[in-house]
Amino acid sequence: MTTYQSVLKQYIHFAGEHTFKGKPAELYDPANYILSLGGKRVRPLLALLGYQLVDPDIQRAMKLAHAVEVFHNFTLMHDDIMDNANVRRGEPTVHVKWDSSIAILSGDLMLVKAYQLLNELDTDAESKSSIIRAFGDMAESVCVGQQYDMNFEKLTDVSEADYLHMIEGKTSVLLAFSLQAGSILAGIDPALEQDVYDYGLNIGLAFQVMDDYLDTFGDQASFGKRIGGDILENKKTLLWIEAKKRCSSSQLKELQHWYSQTTESNEKIEAVTVLFKSLSVDTYAKEKMQHYFEKANMHLAHIKKHYDTTALEALANDLNARNT
Amino acid sequence: MTTYQSVLKQYIHFAGEHTFKGKPAELYDPANYILSLGGKRVRPLLALLGYQLVDPDIQRAMKLAHAVEVFHNFTLMHDDIMDNANVRRGEPTVHVKWDSSIAILSGDLMLVKAYQLLNELDTDAESKSSIIRAFGDMAESVCVGQQYDMNFEKLTDVSEADYLHMIEGKTSVLLAFSLQAGSILAGIDPALEQDVYDYGLNIGLAFQVMDDYLDTFGDQASFGKRIGGDILENKKTLLWIEAKKRCSSSQLKELQHWYSQTTESNEKIEAVTVLFKSLSVDTYAKEKMQHYFEKANMHLAHIKKHYDTTALEALANDLNARNT
């Protein structure tokens, strides 16, 4: 059993050796650029840790790991155009550094590349086909999640169920797929495939709810992004959805007042944070997060009976440690 | 042997029964919309005629046919954003009817859908994997072709070799793939797979050169688009590339003068057409076209020795008949 840090190191080495080659540069460079920006590489790590549950020879899962990372970065490249985002991991986004047409086309290439990697997996054709099928279903859910996210911006109200459905598509299904596909490639007991998927799905939901919480109530230094960003962008997060449910009519007016503003304002961040706190939606979010972690751990317990989950748990704990 | 017209009818019926279902509407409707706009459906026809070379039961190839049509329309949806095109087949483009974000995401979904269709093909897993590999290589070439096309807009000079490489990627490889994948799915003699591919590739090149020719020298009524469109857009077509090679320094100045204009002008169309004609680049394009048709027919002759190519030839002839 290799630690997740060592697994990460091996993946980063692999990714460095497998940059995309080809011409014209305008097509391939942006793909290599966004992949080089780093990040936590949670998805390839999950693919490799899923594989390692069953088989220590994680090299066999490297192409799968790279496929999910390439796919994730394809979605980032296109989302950044749709969201008009100028900065990604402290660097200019592709459509800013090059232009939107290049970001569209280079993203398209990355989606093709992800499929190419999957189709090159070192396994029998049947398993490959079933991994490609699951990948396609996952990719469709990610598109659905992104479209709902864009739709929500124009709605005056969003239910918690709709919100959870959206984040499941946008974030969790890819984490779940990564972990499960790794374990299937390694030949996990089919009876446990669903537990592996559900573990990934629920930690995904927990981390997304955590992100919502930390965006308002986190610590600037450890969060990495500006605290209050969601509030400034009038984002319909879990905090906002629950606050709307709990608030009095005068509080609702205040919330609506602030969420009709689009200018940068520390006063707005402070006022909405105080309002959220007075309605205890911070506690609500923490409970919700706890709920998903507990669900995840229930599935983990099943897996643990048969496989060594030490490295996987260490990763989840370290990601969870942001919440302190 | 069914006529290509009857094959087309069966495909249109299949496509009508297999519209995409799902929510949100903003994601699925644009995909169904662009597919409903019609067109000649050359790619699915080629997939089905490739299949029919070997096996009359073309229903088995419908998902392949639909996959290539969905893929083609994905490229149109994204290209229309990049090209700022407002009209597609007489109707508003997706990014005009909805918006650019929706056109990006709905296009992404269509690429995923194309792969899903391929992965559902009624064949053994090995063949499926090899069709998916060929599809990925083709899709990458299409991205390469589109990027070169965009790059050419900014260059002052483009060689004929670069131009041919570009149109091969943008148009021909998909035609070649469609025909070949159909024939492979039906179990064609492997010794002929390359001939089938090369036939598709060369008719693709011939038709693209024909498009360049007809855009300037065609008959308005039968061409369907405005004659002189390429000239108005200062497009670096085969006519322009050859004219630049042949012209005197005073003619070059004239050509450069007109190609620095960006306003709508019938005078420009007339002047450039006269110049092209005086340099006999119309004849050059026709010879080039003939050259590709002859190459295509050489490969067809090999195929004909073993399979009935009547329907395929009828399609090629009818497409060729535009050139009269």
| Main beta-sheet annotation of chain A | 2 strands, antiparallel
Ranges of chain A where pLDDT stays below 50 over 5 or more residues in a row are none
How much helix is in the residues of chain A? over 70%
Q: How many E strands of chain A?
A: 2
Number of DSSP helices of chain A? 16
Mean pLDDT of chain A: 95
Describe this structure in words.
The first copy, chain A, is mainly α and about 325 residues long. In chain A, about 75% of the residues lie in helices and about 0% in strands. Chain A has 16 helices and two strands. In chain A, helix 3 packs antiparallel against helix 4. The longest helix of chain A has 30 residues. Chain A starts with a helix and ends with a helix. The mean pLDDT of chain A is about 95. Chains A and B meet through helix 4, helix 6 and helix 7 of A and helix 4, helix 6 and helix 7 of B.
